[in-house]
Description:
There is one protein chain. By secondary structure, the protein is of the alpha/beta class. It contains 8 helices and 11 strands. A 7-stranded mixed beta sheet has the order 1-7-6-5-4-2-3, sandwiched between helices. It has a 4-stranded antiparallel beta sheet with strand order 8-9-11-10, with helices on one face. The longest helix has 23 residues, at 230-252. The N and C termini lie far apart (41 Å).
Amino acid sequence: xxxxxxxxxxxxxxxxxxxxxxxxxxxxxxxxxxxxxxxxxxxxxxxxxxxxxxxxxxxxxxxxxxxxxxxxxxxxxxxxxxxxxxxxxxxxxxxxxxxxxxxxxxxxxxxxxxxxxxxxxxxxxxxxxxxxxxxxxxxxxxxxxxxxxxxxxxxxxxxxxxxxxxxxxxxxxxxxxxxxxxxxxxxxxxxxxxxxxxxxxxxxxxxxxxxxxxxxxxxxxxxxxxxxxxxxxxxxxxxxxxxxxxxxxxxxxxxxxxxxxxxxxxxxxxxxxxxxxxxxxxxxxxxxxxxxxxxxxxxxxxxxxxx
Length: 307
């Protein structure tokens, strides 16, 4: 087991009660020869082929909260702090606080993007959780210093991809969080996965164990992976772009409403409105699943699903 991975730092083990039983000195726990183990291996291999990485570089998880919790419990002790920017996924702060650590909220500009001056001035954390693209539509990587040595988890679960194109990682220690979607029912992810260097994923796999996911979920994921091809993925991205254009036209009709620009095609979009509930009602009448998300400079933030 590597001791120099930021995602499973055994040098600080005495301060981390959740790792006291981790005594392995050899490699990560390997998948067994059982049907369950073979299913797990096949899912990783097929998904990795689509993404363009090795099977050792991808770790499937049931949902984003599970993936973030795994990474947070492997990396954090109660005295640690993590940087993130809200509004963002509720799973981000929840995973951090569950370990006893705290987070630094860098906030966002009215455009939904990170404020570079705040990024530079805020205290460096144990790692950072950012969007690629962010839930507000901004591309956080554009405001994140390339020379920053702080490891990051790049949440790319909102990208308009059936199998999850991971964000371009600035540092070797960075992880990406991607989603697998069924082309027949793309609203909710079937699985999510952490993607990163094999050495870091090996450490997290050891912490998770070989029976991390139920066999029924792995069978479902294997069936979805067999239905995904380049044409299906391209059609999904095109549909999300068309839906975004429809929503943008709907938003332009109402007074006091504005559209937060998207960094690339996404499967959801955010809008600002002086009266968030009116925008939610208008979006729902137009066939979008919408919800008032949170207060934001300039009005209420409304999030609309494009799937």
